[in-house]
Amino acid sequence: MNPSPPRPTPQTEAVTAAVQQAYANYGQAASRWMDEFFAEGGRIFCGAGCFGCCNMPIRLSLAEALVVRDALSAEKLAAVEAHARQVIGNARMAPDDDTYVRRHRLEVGYCPLLDRTTGQCSEYAARPTRCRDTFSAFPARYCEEGHWESLSTREKRQYARDVARTPGTDGELHYVAPLEYLSEPVWDTAAEMMSQAFGVQVWGDFWVLVTLSARADFMAAIELGDAKAAWGAAKRAGLAHPMILEIE
Ligand code: SF4
């Protein structure tokens, strides 16, 4: 268990401030887009208490992981680390990507930052981009693991027809595509800030990166731009796996 996370440094503060600004910009752009979408009769089914997608794997940057790290209590960091260790176990055992995702949703399970009594995110202000830009144009059951597999061939054909004529989708999936495009500047900002502040970029699994960002040896290596030493620190922590950690 990680004793205490490293304190923010000028380097990490520059990165997290830029990410927070990018979140704010995205929030304004998304809000404007939604106002127009609703005015034209579009529908979004997500709302407080709906958490069907909070058991999906989430990819992010170390820049975003640092925002989450700085918001979490020691107790929540410990819960995130326990989740990260299940993620690693799944990455080691899963024979392919589809199995990895299915097992993540069914066995690794819901994000430890989800408040299961209210169904709400307990760290809403710090949540990563993927949690900010994933919206459904169909009812929540369509987002649940196993729903698609439970449909008959006729129902799957009907789904394809329904998605194709639903405003806001990309025509193939029931998620609201323009909101994902609007969040792209957040990813760009994260990439640029990591390169500027650290000289390396780090991408990977949400819970693994938050856990690593709370380790002094990992962050010391990152702040020196030493990708090899950072990988070594991740390995010592038992959190290095090419499927869920990229340091470049
Ligand atoms: S951070 Fe919040 S919104 Fe994102 S998966 Fe976890 S509980 Fe859900």
Topology:
Layout: H1 10-39, E1 59-61, H2 62-71, H3 74-93, H4 97-108, E2 114-115, E3 120-121, H5 129-133, H6 147-150, H7 153-164, H8 177-182, H9 184-198, E4 202-205, H10 206-213, H11 216-223, H12 227-236, E5 245-247
Antiparallel strand pairs: 1-4, 2-3, 4-5
Helix pairs in contact: 1-2, 1-9, 2-10, 3-4, 3-10, 11-12
Iron/sulfur cluster is lined by residues 54, 111, 113-114, 121, 123, 127, 131.
Q: Helical residue percent?
A: 55-70%
Tell me the count of domains: 1
Shape descriptor reads: globular
Discrete helix count = 12
Q: Which radius of gyration do the C-alpha atoms yield? A: 19 Å
What hetero molecules are bound to the protein chains? iron/sulfur cluster
The major pleated sheet works out as: 3 strands, antiparallel
Organism: Deinococcus radiophilus
InterPro entries: Puta_zinc/iron-chelating_dom
Protein name: YkgJ family cysteine cluster protein
